Amino acid sequence: MTLNLTANLTLNLRDADVLRHHQKWSGAFLACERFSQYRFCWLRDSSFMAYSLDLADLRTHSRAFHLWVAQTLAPLKEHFETLLQRKNAGEQIPYTDMLPTRFGENGEWEQDGWPNFQLDGYGQWLWALSEHLRLSGETDLPEVYRDSVQMVVSYLQHFWEMGCSDCWEEFHDHVHTATLASIYGGLNSISRFPSVAVNPEVPAQIKARILTEHVKNGRLVKSNHLDGVDASLLWVSTPFKVLDENDPIMQATVQEIENTLVRDGGVIRYDGDSYYGAGAWLLLTDWLGWYFAEAGDPEKAQKFFQWSENQRTREGHLPEQVAVSSTDPAKLQEWNDLWGSSANPLLWSHAMHAVLLNRLKI
Ligand code: BGC
């Protein structure tokens, strides 16, 4: 399949434009302003938005986001220190007391019962910040980030083994493979900066844990309690590099993802998903493309890119998910009745589409 060069350069600019036009003056990105439940800035979604803006050379925007995170986290230091004391005293800390995964656009921590304890976003932020600084030619962590980064490093080092909600905000007490990979990627990448103190034993322990407890029958599993695959397992190689894209475990995992999660050309999150009847997610389809681009199969990567491109609305927007032939219509209706139709534009979809386009180098 060939893609038209001019058309795709335009698309790349368009996706980056959607992101920067939606960025708040504070530096935050709200996941989807038109969707009532997504008017928050998730560390996870936004870290990949910042990365895609870095790849599009829109560094002022990614920098504004990273500075916003540093400023938002700084006042949580005292809370974090209390968490450490409680942990050291042997207390079973309730999930609601752990640091949140999403914030209001001015850094507010809304304590509204959302399953906020999700460690992956903190690892992803460290990774995206490292990439931002690397692409900006920085050789050490600028002073302005130091306190918040060191707090996040310490938070992840102390709590990485604890069960938490996954990147889909579900299965609240499992240990999730993609979450471990995100923490590994964050700690590993931020450790390249001399002023950041990362205990090298922790990433090594995380990798060992993944290989011993999260691999079954030669492939990765969703969590310590679920043996199926989840599309987020792609993160283990791309981009967090716990394993290389061509490692046999990764290849077997991707084979299983292709066999069981690709529906009508797009990728669903996992078998048994019920959110909006389990549509195919654009960002995951692009992620599978990103995996193949890194694994040296640009043809396959382009095929997944094209599928997502085909879902673009007339306004030029990319939604979170689209219904496919396996989508459960009753469940879809239930969610439509509850929250309205699924999020559109989802900024994270635009981010992953722009990342893949950049990797395709067309
Ligand atoms: C997804 C999360 C995402 C959030 C905001 C949720 O439905 O499961 O992964 O961070 O939406 O986009």
Automatic annotation (TrEMBL):
It comes from the Bacteria. Pfam families: Glyco_hydro_15. Coiled coil: none annotated. Residues 19-287 form the GH15-like domain. PANTHER family: GLUCAN 1,4-ALPHA-GLUCOSIDASE, TREHALASE. This is GH15-like domain-containing protein. It comes from Deinococcus roseus. The lineage of its organism: Bacteria, Thermotogati, Deinococcota, Deinococci, Deinococcales.
